[in-house]
Structure formats: structure tokens, C-alpha cells
Design brief:
By secondary structure, the protein is of the alpha+beta class. The protein contains nine helices and eleven strands.
């Protein structure tokens, strides 16, 4: 038995158990089981940026329905909170497993196999604000820092996260780095501050482009927030020395209410989705207001252990050129 391999697997398990426990306690989340399949035509599937094809699965015993492997659980979680009567301040967390074979490329940060903590919390109307979003993001970052501290104490793993988290809106990035692409802006600001939360992702900025594409039916990226900026969502990024690049750990946000859903479906020219069962549930007031997101498990491991490739954190499939270099 190779002891280095066993030690690393022990550390990976410690990271996952510690962080999920810290997050659940801090945000009052109950651990639940998660689906791997989503029924087509219900509107529950996460459409990501809109072009990715889900893996289709035929179930022999249910021939009248079509299923596909989930991309994430963004909308399933909200439906679950409604079904079981969760109150404001309560929520769920689950280990989500997915396949995204339509990734444009595979490399140090991108794998076909996706594992993340999918979480969702019920909120009140007055918590639909940038201030509450920042509060929750700060709580998540504090849980990461406590996990990092445990690794240092138990295994002697050097700390790599910056002491504090820097918040910035995507419009501010355009103004600060007008000559750079969105990904180059992310790299520049994260390299400077170490840990960054970029707010307002989905709506067009003053340069005419959105910082990144977001589906119209989970994060609210079009509402004017209490700080006067557009969007109630964002991405958490950290600087990764081993790959000399920014690493996105989480995408999250306050979810659409009925008004935001209608507006965003119109902006994205997907009004037809309003007739799907899940969307009708939201429009008729059956779903609670929530905040939620996904936090990449393998990416958190990759960051805290400063591994130079995500393949060193989990089992997946890779092109021969990558496989041979690992």
C-alpha cells in the first residue's frame, strides 16, 4: 500500500467532511440526498449557459418518460424546500454529482465529472439584497478558512487563502480593466487580492457584454440591488499559485422571484419556458424566496492542497495527453 496515496485520500475526506459540516452549521442547512437524473420537460434541469447538452438516460421500466443526468440542482433544491415546508432561515445541503461532457475543453480546472456542494436557504423579501448576499458569501468564506485551519493543525498543510475576501461588481471590473476580456479581468483582480467575490453576472455591462452567461431561471442577475448595481448574484474566486491563475470555487446568488423570472426570460428570449411546470410553480407563488449555489468539492480540495490539476482530486476521463502527464 502506497502511504502517500492513503494520506492524501484521508486529507481529501477531512476537507469534505469539515467544510460541509461548517457550512451546514453556519447557514442552518440540513444534509439531504440528491437526485442524479432529471425528467425532461419539467423545467427543473439547470441549463447552465444554454448550449450544453445533458447526458440522456433511458429507463426501461419507465418508457413513457425521458430522463437526463443533472447539470446541477439549482431548481430542484427550491422545489424541495417548498415540498417539505422549510421556513425562513432554514435550508438544505447535498452532495451533487453530475456529468458535463459538453465542456469546451478539459484541463487543470475543468473535468467531465462534477462534484459540488449544492445548497439552498429560504429567505425573506427584505433579504433579497446585495447586503445579505455579501453576508452569506462572507459566512461561506469563513467556513473555508476554518477548514484550512484544521488542515494546518491536523496535517501541517500550509495555509493558502488570503486573510479576507474582496467584493467587487463586474461593472467596476470593466471600468478598471477596459482593455481586458472578462476572464483576464478575473485573473487580474484575483491575483491582486487573493480571494474575490465578483457580483452582478448575467446582465450586459457598459461595454455591451455580460461578464458571463447565466441561465434566466435561477440567479437574479437583472434586478437593481440596494447598492444601485444590477444583479444579486456572483462568483467566488481564489488565486491558485500552483496553476498561476484564478480558480472559481462557487457560483451563487439570490434566486429569481416571479418578476425577475418574467424579465429574464424576456431578456434571454426564452419566454416559452414560462409554461414549464417548475416555472409555473414559481409564477403562481408556490415556491419560497431563496438564496443558494454550488461550491465545487474538487476545486476546494485542489485549492487547499495547492494541487496543479483537478485530476489529482477525483476520478474522471481525460485525453491521452493529459492522462500521460499525471
Amino acid at each position: 500500500m502506497i502511504t502517500d496515496f492513503v494520506r492524501q485520500q484521508t486529507i481529501i475526506r477531512t476537507i469534505k467532511q469539515t467544510f460541509s459540516g461548517q457550512l451546514a452549521e453556519a447557514l442552518n442547512l440540513v444534509a439531504v440526498e440528491a437526485p442524479i437524473l432529471s425528467e425532461q420537460g419539467t423545467g427543473i434541469q439547470d441549463d447552465l449557459s444554454g448550449h450544453e447538452q445533458a447526458v440522456a438516460v433511458r429507463v426501461k421500466a419507465i418508457p413513457e418518460k425521458q430522463f437526463e443526468v443533472v447539470h446541477s440542482l439549482a431548481k430542484w433544491k427550491r422545489q424541495t424546500l417548498a415540498k417539505y415546508g422549510f421556513a425562513v432561515g432554514e435550508g438544505i445541503i447535498t452532495d451533487m454529482r453530475a456529468l458535463r461532457p459538453d465542456e469546451d475543453s478539459l484541463g487543470a480546472k475543468h473535468s467531465v465529472y462534477v462534484d459540488q456542494w449544492d445548497w439552498e436557504q429560504v429567505i425573506s423579501e427584505n433579504q433579497r439584497s446585495s447586503e445579505y448576499l455579501k453576508q452569506v458569501v462572507t459566512t461561506i468564506y469563513a467556513a473555508l478558512k476554518r477548514t484550512e485551519q484544521r488542515l494546518s493543525e491536523q496535517f501541517g498543510v500550509p495555509a493558502c487563502l488570503s486573510p479576507s475576501l474582496h467584493f467587487i461588481h463586474s461593472q467596476e471590473l470593466v471600468e478598471r480593466y477596459p482593455q481586458l476580456t472578462p476572464k483576464q479581468r478575473e485573473r487580474a483582480i484575483t491575483r491582486e487580492h487573493g480571494s474575490v467575490f465578483i457580483m452582478g453576472i448575467g446582465s450586459p455591462l457598459t461595454d455591451g457584454q455580460a461578464h458571463d452567461v447565466r441561465a434566466p431561471d435561477y440567479d437574479d442577475w437583472s434586478s437593481i440591488a440596494d447598492d444601485g448595481r444590477t444583479g444579486l448574484n456572483g462568483d467566488l474566486l481564489v488565486w491558485h499559485e500552483a496553476i498561476d491563475d484564478a480558480l472559481e470555487l462557487s457560483s451563487m446568488g439570490i434566486r429569481v422571484d416571479a418578476d425577475a423570472l418574467v424579465r429574464q426570460l424576456q431578456l434571454s428570449r426564452q419566454q416559452h419556458r414560462a409554461q414549464l411546470p417548475w416555472h409555473q410553480s414559481l409564477l403562481t407563488g408556490e415556491l419560497p424566496l431563496t438564496i443558494g449555489g454550488g461550491i465545487g468539492q474538487s476545486r476546494v480540495v485542489m485549492q487547499l492542497l495547492q494541487l496543479d490539476h483537478i485530476a489529482k482530486t477525483h476520478c474522471s476521463v481525460w485525453p491521452q495527453a493529459i492522462q500521460g502527464a499525471l
